[in-house]
Amino acid sequence: MSSCVHPIRPTWVPLLAVFLLLGGCTSETPPSTPNVLILFTDDQGYGDLSSYGHPTIETPHIDRLAAEGTRFTAFTTGAWCVPSRTQLMTGRYMPRVDFGGATGANGEGGLPDEEVTLAEALGEAGYATGMAGKWHLGHAEDRFLPPNQGFDSWFGLPYSNDYRKPWVQTDVPLALHRGTEVVEHPINQNTLTTRYTEEAVSFIEEEAGGETPFFFYLAYNMPHLPIHTTDRFRGQSGAGLYGDVIETIDWSVGEVLAALDEAGVAENTIVFFASDNGPWLNLPDRMLQEGNKPWHAGSPGPLRGAKATSYEGGARVPAMIRWPGRVEAEVDTDELVASPDIYRTLLEAGGAELPERPLDGHDLMPFLTGEVEESPRERYYYFLGELEAMRAGRWKLRVAGDTTQLFDLQNDPAERFNRASGHPERVEEMRARMEAFAKEVGAEVAE
Question: At what angle do helices 240-263 and 60-67 cross, to 10 degrees?
């Protein structure tokens, strides 16, 4: 596969080149140690941004971020909340990590001490670290929470915003935390996005003038059901309440980018944006209460499937990365990239020490800077408990259910045509790879 480059603003690019040649630009090359900002949405589908084709939701700030950096059209992550956050925070597929139990409201599990989170590694490299938003990697003991997983500060929820009655039958209170202390219960979910945004902006303002680089992780609870937004954004979009929620997130991204600009650190800050997984189109009946509707679950765009499936609509998400002067701008790429790669890339860029344990990510920076034309990632594995599918280049083998499916994702990203009968040797070879990798990480291949 090859990268597809599209000049988004062709009228001024030649003028800028002349301006630089004449020495009219006074900006300096960014320092070697960048700040890092991650913006991570929850259950936002591949088709929910205007830059990814939504006809009625307007997302100018996120689209600007994409235009000023590299936009991925084949970015793949976990198909539901916990594996996607595991990959991002540890650089490892979830079966490698011994959580010791579930991490939702009634769960007793959490990240074990031997795992090295992105915050821990960057913190050891001298970064100030902060987080606002959803964690979902353990809460039953304080040692599982973000302040004991490398973050100097945390303001947010320990898991998804539906972990309360009537949506989930639990007596564990859904509570807002600052550090390890509960600061609000019950929660006003209407203002979660705006309050998380204020936390991020405040962190940037405080840390931007310091002597050390900073890392901030803004993990939105939205648009995970039940969806909420403030009165300011209700009725704003042309796509109902769900569109209002997405446009609230877009406003938030604009506020955070503006904070970087105002603090004078935008040129030396890596900004990564993605969703954790696809939309919850296959939501259970328990979610259709208190005003929740099936159409509040977003869109996978042209892709097949949804959250918690190993089809592309579950794992392929909108994603983009910006680092002015380093990451190529105005680039759309269909090269295969995955969330474990972001962990590895950010550690390499930040000068952090890589943990001495198997990592599933690659350093993307040579690809993102244009030094090489192809992504280092050759294959990706789709786990939903068991290993259900793998992608190798343009081909994807899916063995979940009672059929074996082989898709050519280059020609058929919607996974409409099963090509398995015409490529028995390819199916056999990919199935053998799946068996070997499942054994390596301690998982089983789905039957």
Answer: 50
